[in-house]
Backbone:
């Protein structure tokens, strides 16, 4: 590194320590050959984000001629444009073409966004829907997890369909200007419904249902402008339908997870879906620009989702473990592949998570 | 590296050169700190897959004590178990727990699978659907691209709905046992339809439509057992609906791409959708285990998709460029984020690609 670049880094040190988002940089700096994984592990062990930023600025100066321009271009690629501009006197970074940029959502704020968890456990007698034992385990896990991932967590338990609706609308109406993303988790019974964009419906405790499509669209660009261009994530732990045993028919050699079977329940409806009963035929007219949305389903539309009365649902248990192990280093889509891989391996395809998205960038959680 | 490990590598050299799938390894070897990106670039420049494998085995021996066990565990993580077993005498690799494995689909065969491209350009007079000028450009690009990516490409032009149906069924009925994946590309007009799993329909040249859900499900685990557990990829360049100008309403400051506007057409229907007209109400009963499927839509359900009469569609042009630049190093989901990012940036959210998937692993194309 040239002496002038080193001095520029030193002069910018304070702002870098304050503002630098390190998490999205590791992958880029690895791929550009500036650091090895061992070196990055070492920097990550420095402590908090600020400590890591300080260490990164120090170590960078020992990494050869390419280190400075590679760092500046990584800042550009991760949309840290102010910091890139601060350092750009020190090199002539080549103009990046749109396709050259590895697109990454940047989470700068703390908290990075709201996380609303709706946890439906007890359903009204008339609803024919059973107690969702184990759901509180899921809920507590996710509250803890998403707090660690810098979300402001809001939890609601046992809501009727209309209350769910109100809760979501109220969240969508908040001002998210000072936040970088938004997350909604629904833990409930569900069923399949035919829709234009996002499939499935979830149940209120009164047995009335609300379409996932409707939930998602409260947060789109036109209904929730302060989240425009920001990632909106939805995690749905609910049944996609009543096709419980299909996986076994197809893969009859798949072992049943005997150890759990005594405690296993499904989030399916115990009766047939009322076919022909369509939700929100007018939803089409109000569908607006649907970008930056990811909906992760615990199970694929049309299939059941399994829950252990003591340990909680397969999906949430796996999601929580994967986030624990990999949120500091991997992007959300790769982590969801890990979840799908692990959940589907339980009794081979008995449950198959799915994911529908209109994301434009990689999403890395913010880790403390 | 210990001398015994070096000798074992030398003894296994012939099989490694013949069988080693190098593409999925780069990322892992980078992250494990065995090679820097520069070193990997150098190995990739060695030439064909075989040449790269040979170079990798040579260079590995110079990379320190961790190189051998890291290489063996990378073989395990990429499901190259035979090769891992071949080398496992040389180290005691720790038993990996399911969540520790980075799941990756392995493409070993050459060709790796069929790629069927259905290219509808001319529509019958009664259909009210216009000539899709520029679609042949798309088709030729993708034929060339997917041949380079080791697919056996089959192309069909101007098919009626029933012919599309027959073509897909005939592809699904083939024996894919000796192949590792399957790819279907549809270039046509499209419209939105309400469905349980995958949204949208595409048009035959006779103006009759066929649901994307139906297309996808010909290839699922029960209807096409020889593709069970293997990735099935669908790329749909067609309209998701007639909501052409919504993006502008939402982001009224977005610039129109004037240079193109004279040649721009949409793959939308020029008239209102026939609401209430539902496809395949019986599809539900026949939906089977829906794993390992990815459907990439040129545009989000409900929205139009843009095509330039001379350069072809925005989506295919971008997809082809991204595959050209990144297929050798990045997995499909990250590349699709790049496509979404670039396409949505054309006139900001005028067109928003989307992706629905039940993949369980990362997908890396096989490069020659």
Residues:
């Amino acid at each position: 590194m040239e002496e002038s670049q080193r001095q520029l880094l030193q002069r910018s040190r304070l702002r870098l320590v304050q503002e630098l988002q390190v998490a999205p940089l590791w992958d880029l700096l690895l791929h550009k050959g500036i650091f090895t994984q061992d070196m990055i592990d070492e920097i990550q062990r420095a402590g908090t984000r600020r400590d890591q930023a300080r260490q990164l600025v120090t170590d960078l100066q020992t990494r050869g001629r390419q280190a400075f321009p590679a760092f500046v271009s990584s800042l550009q690629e991760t949309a840290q444009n102010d910091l890139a501009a601060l350092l750009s006197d020190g090199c002539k970074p080549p103009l990046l073409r749109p396709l050259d940029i590895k697109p990454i959502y940047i989470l700068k704020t703390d908290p990075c966004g709201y996380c609303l968890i709706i946890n439906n456990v007890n359903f009204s007698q008339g609803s024919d829907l059973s107690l969702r034992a184990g759901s509180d385990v899921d809920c507590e896990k996710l509250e803890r997890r998403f707090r660690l991932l810098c979300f402001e967590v809001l939890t609601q338990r046992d809501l009727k369909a209309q209350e769910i609706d109100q809760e979501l609308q109220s969240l969508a109406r908040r001002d998210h200007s000072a936040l970088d993303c938004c997350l909604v988790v629904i833990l409930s019974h569900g069923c399949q419904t035919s829709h234009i964009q996002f499939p499935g419906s979830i149940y209120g405790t009164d047995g009335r249902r609300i379409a996932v499509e409707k939930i998602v669209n409260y947060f789109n660009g036109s209904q929730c402008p302060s989240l425009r261009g920001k990632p909106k994530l939805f995690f749905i732990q609910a049944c996609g339908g009543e096709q419980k045993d299909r996986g076994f028919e197809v893969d009859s050699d798949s072992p049943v997870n005997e150890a759990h079977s005594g405690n296993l329940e499904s989030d399916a409806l115990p009766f047939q879906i009322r076919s022909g009963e369509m939700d929100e035929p007018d939803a089409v007219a109000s569908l607006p620009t649907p970008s930056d949305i990811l909906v992760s389903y615990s199970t694929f539309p049309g299939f059941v989702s399994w829950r252990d009365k003591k340990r909680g649902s397969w999906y949430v248990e796996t999601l929580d473990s994967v986030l624990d192990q990999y949120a500091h280093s991997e992007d959300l889509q790769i982590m969801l592949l890990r979840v799908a891989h692990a959940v589907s391996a339980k009794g081979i395809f008995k449950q198959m998570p799915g994911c529908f998205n209109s994301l434009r960038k990689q999403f890395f959680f913010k880790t403390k």
Q: What stands out?
A: Chain A has 14 helices and 14 strands.
